[in-house]
Design brief:
heterodimer; A: alpha+beta; seven-stranded antiparallel β-sheet; four-stranded antiparallel β-sheet; 13 strands; about 30% strand; elongated; B: seven-stranded mixed β-sheet
């Protein structure tokens, strides 16, 4: 038989659920609650400002891998204990991290990069690039060595003349992170 | 218990002060930012610009630059010094082929600053719609040197930074 002394009973469950729901939606503004809000707020701010930076993709240089208008997060801790490797997609910082370049690493320091009739060559050997989109433009670039502390990056969309595509070597310090997916 | 409250209050006030210092720039910094924003404003073009308006912009540009001023934009094949009298007409002439020019500034930082010199770094996104040809977008990192004179902060050098070296 239900009684006030025993609120946990089948007949009181809807009332208890309603009380809990109201408490959740309209919490009591006490110190614990305010502290909780502060901690969650600061953690979220830190996480999405420094660790998982949200970004929108603007442009076609990484088509078909990443399309214009797409959304993603830049994971900045990827290279804390490691260095960028060929075929990694990376975000490259400019003056800050509000606008970054999204490119793919094709060569690392000490390697030689060239393009011959649209085909990427690293250290004189042709490189298989299943991710690249070619469109009939024959890119030709004489060999050049990647400097120490640099990586060579190119976009996946090669269906434009080489002069219109922004690519080249950049210091590793400019690599902000990698897309989360 | 009372002392703890005062300490907490003092800590909060100090934190607010630090945040305000970081978020709201000092007088000279805000003047520098305003001058960079003014430069953006004179380079913008909305497609309805008359010759008279362009002439006024040329005068404004002249007042924003110290003479001589160096412009280094290797990607556009520009690398020379301009006297104060020629910088305005040169920039207006460079805008001529374009019906519309959109320009957005990001990540503006004052990298180095003393009483009468400053180095400013930012990213600029350009949207160019020429009269003939397809529209194009471009993004560059820019470094500017600025000098202060009695009339305010003026640009003495503007150069693009080669982020990706082919």
């Amino acid at each position: 038989m239900a009684s006030r002394a025993n609120p946990i009973s089948k007949t009181n469950f809807p009332v208890r659920f309603k009380t809990l729901a109201l408490k959740f939606i309209f919490p009591e503004l006490n110190r614990i609650y305010l502290l909780r809000v502060l901690v969650v707020g600061l953690t979220t701010l830190f996480l999405f400002r420094y660790i998982l930076i949200p970004f929108w993709i603007s442009g076609h240089s990484m088509v078909p891998t990443y399309r214009d208008g797409g959304f993603n997060f830049c994971f900045t801790l990827r290279y804390v204990f490691d260095a960028p490797r060929p075929s990694d997609v990376v975000l490259i910082r400019m003056a800050g991290d509000r606008v970054m370049l999204l490119k793919r690493v094709v060569a690392t320091e000490g390697q030689t990069v060239s393009f011959v009739d649209g085909q990427l060559h690293v250290d004189g050997e042709p490189v298989e690039e299943p991710y690249a989109r070619n469109g009939g433009f024959k890119w030709n670039l004489p060999p050049r060595r990647v400097k120490e502390g640099h990586v060579y990056v190119v976009g996946d969309n090669r269906s434009v003349p080489m002069e219109y595509h922004c690519f080249g070597q950049t210091p590793i310090e400019r690599v902000a992170g990698v897309p989360l997916w | 218990m009372v002392k703890k409250r005062y300490l907490l209050l003092a800590g909060l006030i100090a934190l607010c002060g630090l945040l305000a210092f970081h978020l709201f720039p000092t007088g000279e910094q805000s003047r520098i930012r305003e001058q960079v924003e003014n430069l953006r404003g004179v380079i913008l073009k909305d497609g309805h610009e008359t010759e008279f308006a362009a002439g006024i912009k040329a005068k404004k540009i002249r007042r924003m630059f110290a003479g001589p001023c160096r412009i280094e934009a290797g990607v556009y094949g520009i690398s020379r010094s301009y006297e104060s009298g020629e910088i305005g007409p040169s920039i207006i002439a460079a805008r001529q082929p374009y019906n519309r020019i959109g320009i957005d500034l990001h990540d503006l930082q004052i990298a180095d600053m003393d009483q009468d010199r400053a180095v400013v770094r930012f990213t600029v996104s350009l949207g160019l719609a020429p009269y003939a040809g397809l529209p194009m977008n471009d993004t560059h990192e820019i470094v500017c040197r600025m000098e202060k004179d009695p009339d305010g902060w003026r640009f003495s050098e503007i150069r693009t930074v080669e982020v990706l070296e082919k």
